[in-house]
Write the structure tokens for this entry.
Amino acid sequence: MDSTKKDDAQSWIGIIRKYNQPDIRKSTLQIINSLGPYLIMWAAMYYTLGISYWITLALSLLAAGFLVRIFIIFHDCGHGSFFKSVRASRILGTIMGALVFTPYDRWHRSHAAHHSTVGNLDKRGDGDVWTLTSDEYRAKSRGQKLFYRLYRNPIMLFIIGPVILFTLWFRFNAKGVSRKERWNLYLVNLIVVVWSVGLSLLMGWKAFLMIQVPIIFFATSAGSWLFYVQHQFEDVIWSHNEQWDYMEMALHGSSFLKTPRIIQWFSGNIGFHHIHHLSPKIPNYKLQRCHDENPIFSSIKPVSIGKGLQSMKFRLWDENMGKLISFPLFKKASVS
């Protein structure tokens, strides 16, 4: 490491050390103001079924917002940033994971790999949105290109795929997983079954589906877009292993998504993703303070919602241009 990078590393390590500890009061409050309203929304949606399903659907958007917030708590538990106790984090994370249909151990194993390899062109594939380089795509067969195009289509990425991933894919263990991870998935599935069957018996299975389906649909779609734009935006940097640098990739390979306050609240400040990747130990409720209080982050260019939506056109990483590109731009570059 050269002297400049060493000084930079010492600088940000000293900064994040001040924010790395969870605050039990704030964590407890976040559980209350996330889980409590979510359950209230469930009750309100059930009540409105007898009045107008349009009202029920409107309430499902609010409920989905609280479910995204619950996912952030689940996410922080896996990083050890919500509670100091590993046991408390795992217990709460497993319960919150069941509410978002996600196995705690499986997801966080994959997510840890994502943090250690994000933006590394030589270590793609675990916990990331599948992205090919232009050269890799060019070398694929016609059938493989079609499959990749279908995968990268926004309808698949943000509408169909997320629902399949969370409701079906996460119900099964991957091959070769540890005994601990396997049994954690069984426990999460059990909680999902008890929750689903219990409510179905109480209110009827049709009513249960009319409430749960739109909530999970809106929540997974919004959450998937948030995850996507964190590392797939116009000025993102990616590099090969020999040039890969932790601080550089955190600050410039992860987005600073600027959203209205209400969206920022529901998404648990995850828009400050550059800070989160710099230190996953920082609780979500301290991310903005860390960003605002330290001049080192003032040069980070924010990504607006508009720019984030435009990023959905990106399909490939072009190594010659050093950026993400669309299929039309790929075609134009290939012809020229």
Residues 53-79 form the longest helix (27 residues). The beta strands are 132-133, 316-318, 323-325. The radius of gyration is 21 Å. The mean pLDDT is 94.
